[in-house]
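Thanks for the sequence, V.! I ran Flavin reductase family protein right away. Repeating your input here for the record:
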Amino acid sequence: MSANDQIFAPGPDTDVALRHAFGRFGTGVTVITTRSEIGPLGFTANSFSSVSLNPALVLWSLANASRRHDAFAKAAHYSIHVLTDKQADMALHFATKGDGFDVYPHETDAHGVPLLRDCLARFDCTHYAAHPAGDHSIIVGRVTQVALGEGAGLAFDQGLYGRFKAF
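Predicted structure:
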C-alpha cells in the first residue's frame, strides 16, 4: 500500500470498488455440476477452497440472486471441476448458462451428476452444510472421491482468464 492508494469503507456507494478490490485476489477456476429437478446444471465459481482433511471438506459460495442458487444449495450430490488453462471457454459457458452439457464431453455418475472430462482435478461431494453469508450462501461439501488430471490450472485475476507463470 502507498500514500496514493484509494481508501474506502465497504457500503452501497462503494460496491463497484469493493468488487474490484476482491478481484485483485487471483484464484483458480472451477465448474460445479449437479443434477436438479430440471436436469443437469453447471456453475462457474472461483470461490472454491479446501476446509479440512479429516473429514475431507471443501467450500464455495453462490450468490443468493443466482437463478441456480436453490438447485445447488439443496443438492445432495455435486462435483467440483478444477479447470485447466485450456478450458476458459468452458468457464465462460457455465458462467452464463447453467445447461448446454452437450457442448462438452462428460459422463454422468450414479447420482445423475455430470462429470466433465479433461479437468485438472475433480472433487465429488455430498452436501455437508449451507450457511447464509450476506448476499451469498457458503456451501460446504464432504469429498467422497477425487480424480486427478494433468496440465496447468486456469487462473482468474482482475476479470481476466489466464495461466499462472512461476518466476
